[in-house]
Amino acid sequence: MAQALSVRNLSFRYKGAEKNALNSVNFEAQRGEFLVVMGPSGAGKSTLISTLNGLIPHLIEGELEGNVVIDGWDTREHQTRDFATKVGLVFQDFETQLFSTNVQLEVAFGPENLALPPKEIIRRVQESLRSVGLKGFEEREPATLSGGEKQRLAIASVLAMKPKLLCLDEPTSELDPMGTDDIFAIARRVKRSRSITMIMVEHSSEEVLGADRIILLTEGEIRAMGPPKTILREVDLLREAGIRPIPITELFAQLGAHSLPLTLEEGLEHLRREGWRIDGAQYRSLRQTDELRARRYGKVLIEARGLEYTYEGGFQALKGIGLRIREGEFVAIVGQNGSGKTTLIKHFNGLLHPTKGEVRVEGVEVRETDILQLARRIGFVFQNPDHQIFAERVVEEVSFGPRNLGLPEDAITDRVTRALEAVGLLDSREADPFSLTKAERQRVAVASVLASTTKVIVLDEPTTGMDYRESIRMMELIRELNERGHTIVMVTHTLWIVSHYAHRVIVMRDGKIIRDGKTREILSDLDGLKEASLKPPQMVSFGREWGDFAFLSPEECGRCLVS
Amino acid sequence: MNLYLYLDRKTAIHGLDPRTKLFILLGSFVVASLQEHPVSAMIVASAIVAHGALSGSLGNIRRIAGLLTAIGILTVLLWSIQAKGVTPLFWRFQVEPLLYGISTGIKIDSMIVAGVIFLSTTKNEEVAIGLVKLGLPYSFTFAFCTALRLAPTIVGSAQMVAQAQRSRGLDLRRGGLLSRTKKYIPLLIPIFLTTLRYTNQLSMALESKAFRAMGTRTFLLDARFGARDYWVAFALILVLIIAILIRIKGLGEIQGLLL
Predict the structure, then answer these.
(1) Nearest-angstrom CA–CA distance, A289 and A402
(2) Chain A residues with CB-CB distance to B216 below 8 A
(3) Domain limits, chain B
């Protein structure tokens, strides 16, 4: 095989930064290879990707050492735009790379820049759209596509330039499970063609088994590199590097097994061979705990009856929603992108008013209450903290809410201190919010809601863009808040988070609630999940394959297994 | 919510060359601005609305009906007070300034409507190719069209920011003028930073897609000046000449109006 890419002693330090973002990175890739780059936030994954088509050093300033050679070209010697036929780069944020008015023109943009004849452009547009499954979408406006379709369009738009190296920077981090599957199907197709080398940054270890090699990056250095079968068995190393191990592998590591399985089938076979069984009494006690918890909930806080909502332009996003959320609950709302999850929760704090039906908070109709009254009761944490952070100091940012409520100064100070303590940012109170990591900024957003001491905290995708460790930290914080009496309503498409933390799951599809019940019941209702195009978490599938069990985490399963 | 104006229809107007559509837009501006009397302004406005109906873009005009009404009323009031006339009507109002106010309101609304029709019938890429064919450099036309494309994106992020801050109890309707102005800071800073980040990433995405890599570029869309375009251009020139002649002759002026 011919060498497609060589990275030699690569180090990079961003202008004004104290530390190197990359430190003596060395690796090569052969033509047709599929490499996955994994690592925690801040490990240098995106920086590495930006060096591959010369964005570093030509557009992003800093000190570069070492060399990156793609298909015989050194990135220092050629401009990024000249690399377009060698390297196709798909950015994490698909919104910023789509700027045309229809799908066909979006894909044509690159070939047009290469001054190809229109006939050839049409041929390439058709070919690229076919390879990402967007044939028939030519006249659609990119803004009307779903997240997954947008990401596929972004991939098609670089494939049309026929690159030799395709780089995908966290292409699935904002997609629902179905969108994620589609992206990996494209990756498999590209790999089969053997003509394109692929480098993908990805968090989910379950998805990357099909890669040729994994590069594990921590603090700008290659910590480990090798085939997925080797790297994914290093459970401790993965955890240390902020990556979530495959649950079945984690379970066997917990059981102290010598050989670790990577798939469900391997795991089941292993257990049967070694004569493990499930302790029925232990499993029943898990279910009892669920029951007991449900009995402790208090009065109804949020109630929706016959709720319908139609957006300007006629799109009906909610169709006859009825639900009650009681004090102390921890509710997860799941469903595909566009199923109406976010539209629903925006009714809880009066950001939207029903077109038909009603929403009541503590018995009072939301329509008849003003936003200030609601802000005291319902705190809303948006998906992207950068849509709300404006202050120069964390403490100022967090006091914005209580100040709007018109509280006296000493009460504000007290609340802000307690809120920052709860999210673990008391030491950063004087820091500039923009100097914090994205995960920390999300915690600032949570603190700013907490400081208004609301009973209910509504969170829209609270862990988007976070690595495993950051997600756990955020979710543990939310769990603590719930245990201290806050009612939690959370929208997410990360089902392992739902299974680990939520008490109750509401499944939405096409603006309707299609399932509503205890987490264990809903996640093991495979038909219900399938109807909403969701995939059960691995430990749930494992329990179902084994017998009529539903485990919500490897720990739960480990407790019930006896040899 | 969809914030783009372009409507993908197959009307006769959509099929015109982008240059022709640009001429219609400019022509509408010139003819509208030449009118002084409400009756003639109304005739021009009707022609523009008919053009809108022909191009199937009345839906977009209805979307901004509130804005048009507000601008119309404000203009009428402003000019009724600003201009001077000779025939008293009631209190401080006189007939001539009121007529002038009405025609100015109609004129401004007509121009906005003409702009909306243009954007409803012309893709950004068509605007770009039209301008390129008129001899403007591609870099300039691309920047112009990206600005058109950026506007709805900024409005979208502004809506998101506004919702986030309202959820934290920000109420823009309360307080005096100064404190209300101050309340816009929590909106403006995130909008500004989001836009900055967006344009920064956009420039990297463009560079990665070989933007300006060659000395020249090709276009998938083609703009061809056909027989229909010549007819429309001819008719437009005729209308322009007539409108200018009427203006020079002084027909349709409001007698006794002092500006």
Answers:
(1) 37
(2) 115
(3) 18-123+222-249, 136-208
- Residue B3: pLDDT band by 50, 70, 90 thresholds? low
Q: Which two three-digit tokens encode residue A458?
A: 């509504």
- The sign of the torsion formed by the CA atoms of B196, B197, B198, B202 equals positive
* Residue bearing the bigger pLDDT, B245 or B151: B245
Whether the CB-CB separation of B133 and B223 falls below 8 Å is answered with yes
Q: What is the pLDDT of residue B1?
A: 42
Query: Mean of the pLDDT values across residues A217-232?
Result: 96
Cα A236 vs. chain centroid, distance in angstroms? 22
Give the Cα separation of A292 and B160 in Å (integer): 40
- Segment 96-125 of chain B within 8 Å of chain A by CB: 123-125
Handedness of CA A17, A18, A21, A23 (dihedral sign): positive
Q: Which residue of B has its CA nearest to A99?
A: B149
What is the ipTM metric for this complex?
A: 0.84
Q: Does B179 touch chain A (CB under 8 A)?
A: no
Of the partner residues B146, B194, B197, the one whose CB lies closest to the CB of residue A99? B146
Whether residue A310 is contained in a domain is answered as yes
B216/A405 CB distance under 8 A: no
Q: How far is CA A115 from CA A118, A158, B210, B227, in A?
A: 9, 15, 10, 29
Task: Say yes or no: A251 and A317 in one domain.
Answer: no
Residue with tokens 């199923």: A339
The total domain count for chain A is: 3
Q: Do A404 and A317 fall into the same domain? A: yes
Task: Identify the three-state secondary structure at position A343.
Answer: helix
* Domain enclosing residue A466, as ranges: 289-532
The whole-angstrom distance between B259's CA and the closest CA on chain A is 42
Q: What is the pTM of this model?
A: 0.87
Q: Mean of the pLDDT values across residues A236-245?
A: 92
Q: Does residue A282 form part of some domain?
A: no
Angle subtended by helix axes A177-193 and A147-159, to nearest 10: 20
CATH code, domain carrying A378 = 3.40.50.300
CA angle, A124 then A127 then A129, to 5° = 105
**B128-144 mean pLDDT:** 89
The residue ranking higher by pLDDT, A338 or A129, is: A129
Per-residue pLDDT band at A310 (split at 50, 70, 90):
very high
Q: Give CA–CA dist A490/B239, Å, rounded.
A: 61
Q: Taking every pair of C-alpha atoms in chain B, what is the biggest distance, in angstroms?
A: 68
- Is residue A280 one of the residues assigned to a domain? no
What is the C-alpha separation between A11 and A244, in angstroms, rounded?
Answer: 27
In a domain, A281, yes or no: no
User: Residues A402-418: pLDDT tens digits?
Assistant: 998 888 999 999 999 98
Which residues of chain B have a CB within 8 Å of the CB of A489?
none
Residue A1 has pLDDT above 70, yes or no: no
Say if B65 is an interface residue toward chain A (CB within 8 Å). Answer: no
